[in-house]
Design brief:
Structural class: alpha/beta
Helix content: 25-40%
Shape: globular
Number of strands: 20
Largest sheet: 7 strands, mixed
Number of domains: 3
Number of helices: 11
Distance between the termini: 65 Å
Strand content: 25-35%
Strand order of the largest sheet: 16-15-14-17-18-20-19
CATH architecture of the largest domain: 3-Layer(aba) Sandwich
CATH superfamily of the largest domain: Vaccinia Virus protein VP39
Radius of gyration: 23 Å
Length: 406
């Protein structure tokens, strides 16, 4: 490891009055432009102590000199020592919050959900006996061995895989000799690992796949789609590896059509169907895959369906993209509604954090109203319990279910 040693003097910060209020409220991010005084230059990953205007302890967090989020807050309130016992207690508390959420039929779920669980910029997912640790800030790299030891000692598993956000990969390789997809412990898997979700089996490419290998956050929406699928012709646009599709087939869908621009994703969807052929509904369901740009296909194809799932990738990567994303959601769902046969059901989802639930639901409802068709709103859903949203910026997932009567 080539990183510099932590200096003997503790990094001390003072921040703006507005930032003080935000930190006291429990927000986990301190931005660079909120800092007005440092006692010295901070190093990647060291603990920064934040003081208020009366020179009293306010908070402590991990410093990242290369990120606009300059400090990821770990603790607010009375001073505490951030040491091994503190981390052990925090992990125990986080794991306890998952106790009883899942039975033996579900072996894929999130164990640590970043800031909302008090682990800013870090997520940990379980896929059967494989743990996947993903980092979104380089501040964790300096204590990676400590965190690995903590996880290994407290969570039974066969292996722990390290995944890194794209912006971290260069510094991780250069300064810490860490790479995306690296095994921190255990033997490398022979291809994708298999896990179960409400008894449905899926593969996850934990070494190279998107996110940590699968989109675990849509679990409850997939189960809801299963309950609506019987006898229906289903379209799963932006299907990725066919999660919604397999659930729909198990629920009795007459046919499922998967759209995705990635041939690799569609092949994974076929394998996921094969993993579940012990279910009669999966065997009976006609499964078709189409490699295409789903946006273009939705506009040009004339096919009709009874159940349509629209779960595109994030359409707003930045705050500046918000208005364009709202318009895009409106157009996409308008095309989806046009493809619904009589008594059809639309399931529309968004993972764009910069588009609020209110904005997204309103865009879908406007598309439904503008269609001139009678409809009823079945329900809306947001985050599942293993993906809690503890602050505004963490609220990214939302889904709305509309049933059309004519």
């Amino acid at each position: 490891m080539t990183c510099k040693p932590i200096p003997a003097t503790r990094l001390r910060l003072r921040i703006t009055a507005t930032a003080e209020t935000i930190v006291r409220s429990g927000h986990p991010w301190l931005f660079a432009d909120s800092i007005h005084e440092l006692n010295r230059a901070g190093l990647l990953g060291e603990l920064a102590v934040i003081f208020d205007r009366k020179d009293k302890f306010l908070a402590v967090g991990m410093y990242d000199p290369d990120s606009p989020i300059r400090v990821r807050i770990l603790h607010v309130g009375k001073p505490q020592m951030i040491e091994a016992a503190w981390w052990q207690a925090r992990l125990a508390r986080t794991l306890a919050q998952r106790a009883g959420l899942f039975d033996a039929a579900t072996t894929g779920y999130r164990l640590i959900h970043g800031e909302s669980d008090g682990w800013p910029g870090l997520v940990l997912d379980r896929y059967g006996q494989t743990l996947v640790l993903k980092l979104y800030t380089g501040a964790w790299l300096v204590r990676l061995e400590e965190i690995y030891g903590l996880l290994k000692a407290n969570i039974p598993c066969e292996r722990i895989v390290l995944r890194l956000s794209r912006n971290l990969q260069a510094v991780a390789e250069k300064q810490f000799h860490r790479r995306d997809g690296q095994l921190l412990g255990g033997a490398a898997p022979d291809g994708p690992v298999v896990f179960s979700e409400h008894g449905v089996r899926f593969e996850a490419d934990v070494l190279r796949g998107q996110k940590t290998g699968f989109f675990l956050d849509q679990r409850e929406n997939r189960r809801e789609v299963e309950s609506l699928a019987r006898g229906r012709r289903m379209l799963n646009a932006f299907s990725f590896s066919g999660g919604f599709s397999v659930y729909g087939a198990r629920g009795g869908a007459a046919s499922v059509t998967d759209l995705d621009i990635s041939a690799h994703a569609l092949e994974s969807a076929k394998r996921n169907f094969a993993l579940n052929r012990h279910y009669p509904g999966v065997v009976a369901c006609r499964h078709e895959t189409i490699q295409t740009d789903a946006f273009q296909w939705m506009e040009s194809d004339k096919s009709k369906f009874d159940l349509i799932v629209l779960d595109p990738p994030s359409l707003a990567k930045r705050a500046a993209d918000r208005e364009g994303a709202v318009r895009a959601y409106f157009r996409l769902n308008a095309h989806g509604i046009a493809k619904l046969d009589r008594a059809g059901i639309l399931v529309a989802a968004s993972c764009s954090a910069h588009v609020t639930a209110v904005e997204f639901f309103e865009a879908v409802r406007r598309a439904a109203i503008d269609s001139g068709r009678k409809f009823s709103e079945l329900k809306t859903q947001q985050h599942p319990p293993d993906h809690p949203a503890g602050f505004k910026e963490a609220e990214y997932l939302k889904a709305i279910y509309l049933k059309f009567n004519a």
